């Protein structure tokens, strides 16, 4: 019997992408934020972006290899802006502001069509709903859920930035299970990547996994073993309801 449906955030409940325009925007916003706090940056805008991008990539490789998430006050001075020779203490003080701004500026986000309808139907069927999301910001996911008007649908929101574990590490799934007061075999996980979402759900012995593809899917799954496959693949978030109805009949 399935009692619980847990969702990924970016790429699943919301469409997410980035572009050359968003890169320019986030660069300008970072420079403005640093200037606001009296932090002087030397060199050109292009040099600044190059060093930030390099630091971001180094942190991505580290965090994905170790399946852990550091706190913003560690990430930004020691990784992202390490090569800029800035005051680390000052960067640490505004790190959450930088992390939050990055998530909503570098990434272009929009709630998927049909999400509210889907959540309402699942709630009315008696399912407990939750979120497990990788994010380097402490508050951005909560703020965006409020902006979308869907925060109250979820019993729990489990974030890598708070737990210290990144999907596919099974520990972040176990923490969510504890918060949701659910057994893994009673849970279905919905995500857009096999590398993080489907692998993680299988590592945690969830009862079923559903993949909905997104802008990020191929970028994250290119090197994933073909043996790692979801139980269901959908193209529209509203199909989650249909899948749950099918699982109920088994």
Automatic annotation (TrEMBL):
Checking Gene3D superfamilies in the record gives: HAD superfamily/HAD-like (3.40.50.1000), Putative phosphatase, domain 2 (1.10.150.240)
Alphabetical UniProt keywords: Hydrolase, Magnesium, Metal-binding
Q: Name one GO biological process term.
A: small molecule metabolic process
Keyword Protein biosynthesis among UniProt keywords: no
Q: Which domain of life is it from?
A: Bacteria
Q: Which SUPFAM superfamilies match?
A: HAD-like (SSF56784)
Pfam families annotated for this entry? Hydrolase (PF00702)
- Could you give a GO molecular-function term held by this entry? phosphatase activity
Q: Span of the secretion signal?
A: none
Q: Which cofactor does it need?
A: Mg(2+)
Task: Please give the InterPro entries that the UniProt record associates with this protein.
Answer: HAD-like_hydrolase, HAD-like_sf, HAD-SF_hydro_IA, HAD-SF_hydro_IIIA, HAD_sf, PGP-like_dom2
- Cited NCBIfam families: HAD-SF-IA-v1, HAD-SF-IA-v3, HAD-SF-IIIA
Name-wise, this protein is HAD family hydrolase
Q: What is the lineage of its organism?
A: Bacteria, Bacillati, Bacillota, Clostridia, Lachnospirales
